[in-house]
Amino acid sequence: MIVYRNSKGRFVEDVRSNNIASIIEQEFFAHNIGHNNTSEYRSWANSLQYLRNAIDVPQIDDECQVAIEYQIPLTSKRVDFLIAGVDENNHNNVVIIELKQWETSGKTSRPDIVTAFTGGANRAVVHPSYQAYSYAKTIESFNENVQKYDISLQPCAFLHNYREINRSNIDCPLYREAVSLAPVFLEGDTGKLTDFILKFVRNKSKIDLLYKIEDGRLRPAKALQDALGSMLKGNREFYLIDEQKVAFETIRRLVKMSLDQATMPDASHSKYTVIIEGGPGTGKSVVAIQLLCDLIQSGYSANYITKNAAPRNVYFEKLRRDAYRQNYIRSLFKGSGSFVGAGKDYFDCLIVDEAHRLQMKSGLYQNQGECQTREIIHSSRVSVFFIDEDQVVTTSDVGSVDLIKECAKEEGSMVYCGKDLNLVSQFRCNGSDGYLAFLDNLLGIRETANTRMDLDYDIRVFDNPCAMREALREKNRVANKSRMIAGYCYDWISKNGKSGYDIVLSDGFKAQWNFSDTATWAIDEDSFEQVGCIHTSQGLEFEYVGAIIGRDLIFRDGKVQTDFRARARTDSSLKGIKTTRNYALADRIIRNTYRTILSRGQKGCFIYCEDTALGNYIKNQLNLSQKP
């Protein structure tokens, strides 16, 4: 999606007339995107004046195309400015420009990471050159037309207020690779920026380059499990963006520091614990796996840990198909109960994904060890916890930020956490931050501004579960990456004999829970007909999901309510609730469960509610007047 699109000549006039900021804001509302960010409004008014000076030259044809605020497909990230056209050899080019109003910045010891005053505080952020380059590579990865029409993307950064006296903070050997890939232009470099653009854009292309980029067919989104084998070989399959890159480089730096400090006489400060918070689709697993692969390639001892067996089993199967030895795979990917009795600082780095699912004790009967969180911190020099407390889905889940901090203090491990390391950008749900905010508000997890809205995400509410299944089946035929997932409201009667149906709904819908004799339901060729649950889907993602909301979530008395009594007898997620009468915890678990299920889809989510009133309420909130 492009918010503002025009010719270079019209853009120059819009800026010259001081209307550009108000025009862009109007376009946001025209695209059904609310906008009340005064700082962003001021940045348009200020930065685009400088950019006009750079492109308002006769050598650049007035008919060349300009775009502002282009949202990269399947992400919530927007490119500040693009100018498109052809060079002297008539080759199609699009110059991507990242704009910053910084006057200075600070150097760090981490590649591609600087410090700058942003968001009301001095923070660690990615270097603007890396930011522009990563955006360009992400667009290349998603957009088939970039390759089909031989469109070259040329990234750069323009820091029009950045003083020349501070150049060494932004353009120095530590950042040389990023600057070589995407040049950075400062306060006095307007002429140099013009020269850079002129290398690639002089005349209008015979094709509408911006249309080809905006509306081009998307390549199938790359699933983490499909790329894992290549990543372990050292290949780059994902380009970490913004706060993902900050988290990655911070952890990598701490691992090196820890080992360097451990060799010194005073090694009291050689142990670190990093807490990375992030909601569904913010790339927690991508960063975790990228970190594992990088550390292994660099010779460090590292493990990827998750309590949930579903993603581990999928990773095992994918890597087995890639001819990796089973013992090697299992040495890298472990369950959260694997560190009972492990020696102090035995591992260089332990990376815990879905840390909210950590339990107190380990073992089949939860009678081993004392505290999984503390055992992981104890046995590693650097422990990393990726966590979303709103994905706690059973009564035995005790992982929390407070518990991690408490255990780190007991183990003498220095804690790194905070806004710089939080993952906030959305890389699932078609990059719709609004969809996640909508879910939080709908489910009563937190109040947000997104109560009734139109969403740039394929979400449909069905009255007929069979119709939902058939619509999802069409999506699954493309790449076998769509699945049905349900709340655990149906007894697993087929577990032992495979006969009979577990889930029987209206309109003749019948289905079994996912097979009990496979650990890889999410990727099996013949598993579409089976329905997954929270335990077989958490930690994984699909292109489309069909969510069956059972009678544990209903709409009564004008609000969404939960009923833990509607859960299946075979469900252990709410074990102990009747004894403890902790009904608030049961309510939280049910809401978190559906938040997790409803956010598994990269491109879309189809919904069927057993409670008709709830289905009608969701339609109303989504402004869906037509029945699918």
- Tell me the strand percentage band: 15-25%
Largest sheet features: 6 strands, mixed
The first-to-last residue Cα distance is: 25 Å
Number of helices: 22
Task: Describe the protein's architecture and organization.
The protein has about 625 residues and is an alpha/beta fold. The chain folds into 3 domains: about 210 residues, no CATH class; about 200 residues, Rossmann fold (3-Layer(aba) Sandwich), CATH 3.40.50; about 190 residues, Rossmann fold (3-Layer(aba) Sandwich). It contains 22 helices and 24 strands. A 6-stranded mixed beta sheet has the order 1-2-3-4-8-9, sandwiched between helices. The chain has a 6-stranded parallel beta sheet with strand order 12-11-13-14-10-15, sandwiched between helices. A hairpin with a 5-residue loop joins β3 and β4. The chain is globular, with a radius of gyration of 26 Å.
Brief summary of the model shown:
With 628 residues, the protein is α/β, with parallel strands linked by helices.
Topology:
Elements: E1 2-7, H1 8-16, H2 20-30, H3 38-55, E2 65-71, E3 78-86, E4 92-100, E5 106-107, E6 113-118, E7 121-126, H4 128-142, H5 144-148, E8 152-159, H6 167-170, H7 176-181, E9 184-185, H8 190-198, H9 209-215, H10 224-232, H11 243-262, E10 272-277, H12 284-297, E11 302-305, H13 309-321, H14 326-332, E12 333-334, E13 347-352, H15 372-378, E14 380-387, H16 401-410, E15 414-416, H17 433-442, E16 458-462, H18 465-479, E17 482-486, E18 503-504, E19 510-511, E20 531-532, H19 534-537, E21 542-549, E22 553-556, E23 559-562, H20 577-580, H21 583-597, E24 601-609, H22 612-622
